[in-house]
Amino acid sequence: KPVKQEGLMLKKRKWPMKGWHKRYFLLERGILTYAKTGNDLKKGRLRGRIDVGLSVMAVKKKSLCIDLDTEDSIYHLKAKTRDLFEQWVTELRHHRMFRQNEIAMEPPERQLQSDPSSNRRVLTLLIQSSITSVCESGLLELNLLLKNMEVLHRTFSAPAINLLQVGLFGLNMCLCFGLCGWDVPDGSRPLLQQVSSESRGSIPESLSEFFDAKEYLLSGSSSENEVSDDDSYISDVSDSMSVEYCRNENGITKAILSNGNDCALKRRDRLPSSRMNESVNLWSILRSNIGKDLSKVAMPVQLNEPLNTLQRLCEEVEYSHLLDTAVNTHDPHMRMVRVYIAAFAISAYACSFTRAGGKPFNPILGETYECLRPDKGFRFIAEQVSHHPPVSACHCESKNYTFWQDVRWKNKFWGKSMEIVPMGVTHLELPGFGDRYEWSKVTSCIHNILSGQRWIEHYGEMSIKHSTTMGDVSHCKVTFLKVGSGGLNANEVEGVVTDSHGRVIHSLFGKWSEALYLGKPPSVTCIWRANPTPEDHEQYYGFTQFAIELNELEEGLKPLLPLTDTRFRPDQRLLEEGDIAGAEEQKERIEVLQRERRRVLQENSMTHSPRFFKRAEDDSWVSNGTYWDVRKDPGFSKLEFPVLW
């Protein structure tokens, strides 16, 4: 009989993946129960109960995580320290073995009264772990397992042990030919774990335990019966493409790819200054502009965030790994490819969730921005190609995809809220397939402009058109739901992927601010999940880690950029540094310069010609393909650019 183990651990919420919560756990006689506190546990206010003997345990030593799969549900637990982790793992092993022996040694009369599936599940777990052992250690290990199982023949009737041996022999053959489909025979007695220390050395430390298990694509239902927890299990494939940001002793952040590679790029993890709170009488500015396009109305710099619209366009490719995943998905019918494209289109809105408090700077005509990210595998350029109407164009390319768009907005103030209506089409091409995707953005609305807590919502239908080289056309329709009364449907999206005949082949749902799921509850798979925001993001304009990096200007980068690059813009730089008065002064000066340049062009009957973009046949703006070549030779420092600031 193992000793009782109890104490606090973290438990992961399943729906909608809202992080970790403290729970008080008690492990006794192979049963793990938990509650919010120790007192709640003593009073019987349980939040859940897990039979450890009927669970498969996965241990992740690096992250101090313990996963318990009870077949009906998967529990994710986490210890605070290494010592606690090892203590819990040790005790869970002992209790699991004790509990499995207890089930195995139940007299036949009690087994008839109990659920017969429990006994079969013990055997199933053992066989499943045998399969895992085969995959990791080869068929020879399975033969050793057979010998060890023969030691336990006393608890089996003769037909049952024969069936087990025949089944494992069949499993050998199935594995050799890449097949596997084998049901546990009914009527078999449970397997008693009573292996000698000599024989145990040739099998895993615990037959149904996986160590440092990888996260595979799973699907299944869950019924944890915990108050406030949804009874669904969500598989997650998005973690495998994530980027982890680690801060070193100097406070500098560098990106660590999920495959363990250090991309050796040191980036800042916070802005030079937090947001300065200075009151602005918005009503005096907006009252005479109700129903008008606010893009032509000068706003005080206090309403801005230290980023530019061109940089905001770059934020839309933060989750470019979804495009890499789409390209590398082996799907002859391109069905899952379209799912990842849809996830990418939705992910572009995630950064706006915490950004309702400020607006980006309006780019100056001819202003440019570049973002070169070897760690993400792309290079991005943007340019303000028109002033009236204001049009921003961008182009992003990698070995897997080419992404481009030109965007113009109409901002309208309706008295309490401001509506942002985007125009233009977003284009994506996958050179490896020759396929093209096109979609338009949905409407955005910022509420409580004048008073109260500002918040943003996006609503409307996004139709993603997929055109193949063969002329086939299919669609993915994503609906951004409008918030109902009491916050109903807040941030929610729903979508379907259809084939060329209009038949639905995939269903999607989730929140543009959090995550996107494939399938229908209770069996769903997480396709994308938003990166966590920095702990103090409220003090720094609600910026994500990716946004924090966009305006960083390293000394080694300065001579490589054109003087029109956003990072040289003084008003935006001064606001980032917390100098509001200086930023306002520079903003007014830059606006005067822009009006003067426009007057000179009009007087000489001249028009502005963008430097790095050109008009396409469909009247959209596309890259002229010169930026990176000129950057390399002769270099921007040897060229003349207009004085923008």
UniProtKB/TrEMBL annotation:
Topology of the protein relative to the lipid bilayer: Peripheral membrane protein
Query: Single Gene Ontology BP term?
Result: bile acid biosynthetic process
Write the record's keywords in alphabetical order, separated by commas.
Answer: Cell membrane, Cell projection, Cytoplasm, Endoplasmic reticulum, Lipid transport, Lipid-binding, Membrane, Nucleus, Phosphoprotein, Transport
Q: Where would you find this protein in the cell?
A: Cell membrane; Cell projection, Filopodium tip; Cytoplasm, Cytosol; Endoplasmic reticulum membrane
Q: Which GO terms describe its cellular component?
A: cytosol; endoplasmic reticulum membrane; filopodium tip; nuclear membrane; perinuclear endoplasmic reticulum; plasma membrane
Question: Per its UniProt record, what InterPro entries does this chain match?
Answer: OSBP_sf, Oxysterol-bd, Oxysterol-bd_CS, PH-like_dom_sf, PH_8, PH_domain
Major localization listed first in the record, in broad terms? membrane
Give all residue intervals belonging to the PH domain.
2-97
Recorded hits in PROSITE patterns, A to Z, give:
OSBP, PH_DOMAIN
Its function, per the record, reads: Phosphoinositide-binding protein which associates with both cell and endoplasmic reticulum (ER) membranes. Can bind to the ER membrane protein VAPA and recruit VAPA to plasma membrane sites, thus linking these intracellular compartments. The ORP3-VAPA complex stimulates RRAS signaling which in turn attenuates integrin beta-1 (ITGB1) activation at the cell surface. With VAPA, may regulate ER morphology. Has a role in regulation of the actin cytoskeleton, cell polarity and cell adhesion. Binds to phosphoinositides with preference for PI(3,4)P2 and PI(3,4,5)P3.
Subunit notes for this chain? Homodimer. Interacts with RRAS. Interacts (phosphorylated form) with VAPA. Interacts with OSBPL6.
Record family assignment? Belongs to the OSBP family.
Q: What is this protein called?
A: Oxysterol-binding protein
Q: Which organism is it from?
A: Cyprinus carpio (Common carp)
